[in-house]
Design goal:
Length: 629
């Protein structure tokens, strides 16, 4: 039974029946049951009682329950307020030399009514701690609800995204949970509510069905659970809002109170402080005008100073400090490994582009170091990464590919500068920085073990590529397996789950996406409607992945699946532009179409050391290879 569900209190004296059984009756003309905020349930079996609308606040209710002889007001306070307004209107009319007409009274009353309505809404907000401040951003022609329902799709649960709002406090919100939502199947002039149950969850979105419809899905609708129009059961009682059954089923039962009591006994609802938790989880520490160090999108090997221009859902639009017209920008999440506090580059020995601006601009200030994502501490005092060691890494300029790579420089605090073999710039301007614990770098043999196609160095003639031969030809050693991050969290993702994902090659875009492959903690993200060559390898804890409904919740624009015409155009353009990779970390720079093997070894044990005990390269680093006969 719901705690505090006052609208179904057993102590009410105006219940038409104490029997909790469901009872069907014939259609009743002009009769509409109303569950008011005092817990009383009114029905009209004779069809004579009628309805009334308060002339002061607009509340709809039973005429016999209204105050004054003429039954014009729902409460004593409304009656007194109306009387006070009438006097003010009369005085104003006399000052103007005119008798106070009825029309004049109404006109004088309207502004105060609006204020009282706003105040009532404010009071309701206070009773529920705080409401969410977000609004839906519709995408023309695309609806997550229709997309999921029509294709019978499944979305990744909110708990998979610890960095997203409510990701760590979602609780046991699931199918069957009851909520109070606006009743859209109603012809009353005022906003009324009814109870609905969650039929299906898809990220933040829930498919709801009004109580009383049983197995009838004709009026089902989708709603964002974290939106401002969804409340725990009992909210209407606390806020003075009426519960009105949908018009389609209003004559189905004679005793709606007994029906609700029976239906809600033992059921679950949202926590009473749910809206407060939503609001708190959407408070972001980064503010406009904060200065940070961020990767230079034109030269990945260095960082630059940028200023936070805006914050949306934890995503930052950063404008490089030297951009006079503020068009040279970069998007990333506040927990992205690409941004750091001012002074970070100098502290670890990373290349940094000095700004021509000699002093901070007015209003700009350095973001506090504690706001940035923390990396795990490492101990480089023992066996550690060395320059020249080989490994496999996700190419930041072609995120659909895992490539043969080399450690080019070892920085402080566990950071490494890495280059992609066969496509490095002569000046090293396309080296990129990964931390030693990064889930985007892998030991030699990772791709072969997990049936992933490894991208060999550009121009390498001996195909198929064999690590054993390549290490011998280049007189190199593989980075020790034990130095890599082998932790695999219980992330909760499954193949074919839907989500919203950043296109990291155009990081201002958040798109409709699907998980198509899972290798331990590594996810293969496919952008719906696009070719596989635009897929991206992303870590399961990446801050660039979001639940379905995140864009609607935060007010960010969602990119729908690409239409067929756009796919054909993009595919043609891609074939014409297969040239050397650009150094700019932005835009679709896919170079090849990755053809994955048909065998998916998703359940294979994550054991980098398989067969490594007797494989040594120059006696220093163990790695996995298949021994040639």
């Amino acid at each position: 039974m719901f705690d505090g569900y006052d609208s179904c209190s057993e102590d009410t004296s105006s219940s038409s029946s104490s029997d909790e059984s469901e009872e069907e009756v014939a259609p009743l003309p002009s009769s509409l049951p109303i569950i008011k905020n005092n817990g009383q349930v009114y029905t009209y079996p004779d069809g004579k009682s009628g309805m009334a609308t308060c002339e002061m606040c607009g509340m709809v209710g039973v005429r016999d329950a209204f105050y004054s002889k003429t039954k014009r007001f729902c409460s004593v306070s409304c009656s007194r307020s109306y009387s006070s307004n009438s006097k003010k209107a009369s005085i104003l009319a006399r000052l103007q030399g005119k008798p106070p007409t009825k029309k004049a009274k109404v006109l004088q009353k309207q502004p105060l009514v609006a204020k009282l309505a706003a105040y009532a809404q404010y009071q309701a907000t206070l009773q529920n701690q705080v409401k969410t401040k977000t609004a839906a951003v519709p995408v023309e022609g695309f609806s997550w609800g229709n997309y999921i329902t029509s294709n019978n799709l499944t979305a990744a649960p909110v708990t998979c995204f610890k960095h997203a709002p409510m990701g760590t406090c979602w609780g046991d919100i699931s199918e069957g949970v009851r909520v109070e939502v606006p009743n859209t199947d109603c012809s009353l002039p005022t906003k009324v509510f009814w109870i609905a149950g969650i039929v299906k969850l898809a990220g933040y979105n829930a498919l709801l069905r009004y109580e009383g419809f049983e197995n009838d899905s004709s009026v089902d609708f989708w709603c964002n659970v974290c939106g401002s129009d969804i409340h725990p059961v009992g909210w209407c009682a606390a806020s003075g809002k009426p519960l009105v059954p949908p018009r389609t089923i209003q004559h189905k039962y004679t005793n709606w109170k007994a029906f609700l009591v029976k239906r809600l006994t033992g059921a679950k609802t949202l926590p009473p402080d749910f809206s407060q938790k939503v609001s708190e989880s959407m408070q972001y520490p980064f503010k406009p005008s904060m200065r940070v160090e961020v990767v230079d999108k034109t030269h990945l090997c260095r960082t630059r100073v940028a200023v936070v221009d805006s914050v949306i859902g934890g995503r930052l639009r950063l404008v490089y400090e030297e951009s006079e017209d503020k068009t040279d920008d970069f998007w990333c999440h506040m927990y992205s490994p690409l941004i750091h506090h001012i002074g970070w580059s100098r502290s670890i020995g990373h290349r940094f582009k000095r700004s021509d601006i000699t002093k901070k601009q007015d209003g700009h200030y350095d973001a506090p170091p504690h706001l940035f994502a923390k990396v795990k501490e490492v101990d480089p005092s023992g066996e550690w990464f060395k320059e020249g060691m080989k490994l496999e890494a996700i190419d930041p300029l072609n995120l659909s590919a895992i490539c043969v790579a080399t450690i080019r420089k070892v920085l402080a605090d566990g950071y490494l500068m890495i280059g992609i073999d066969g496509s490095e710039a002569a000046d090293g301007s396309d080296w990129f920085c990964y931390h030693a614990t990064s889930p985007s770098i892998f030991p030699v043999g990772f791709c072969e073990i997990n049936a992933i196609e490894l991208t060999p160095p550009r121009g390498y003639a001996k195909l198929p590529f064999k690590w054993f031969d390549y290490l011998r030809e280049t007189d190199s050693i593989a980075a020790p397996v034990k130095l890599f991050n082998k932790e695999v969290p219980n992330h909760g993702f499954h193949i074919r789950m839907k989500l919203e994902a950043v296109d990291l090659m155009e990081p201002r875009l958040v798109c409709v996406a699907t998980v198509t492959r899972i290798i331990h903690r590594l996810l293969r993200i496919h952008f719906d409607g696009w070719e596989e060559e635009y897929d991206q390898w992303v870590d399961c804890e990446s801050p660039d992945l979001y639940p379905v409904g995140w864009c609607q919740l935060t007010g960010y624009q969602l990119q729908p699946p690409a239409p067929q015409t756009a796919r054909d155009s993009q595919s043609s353009s891609s074939k014409q532009k297969k040239k050397a990779k650009s150094q700019q970390y932005k835009g679709h720079k896919k170079m090849t179409s990755l053809q994955l093997k048909e065998e998916l070894l998703d359940g294979e044990e994550y054991n980098f050391l398989q067969g490594a005990s007797d494989q040594e390269s120059n006696g220093s680093a163990s790695y996995y290879i298949k021994q040639e006969p």
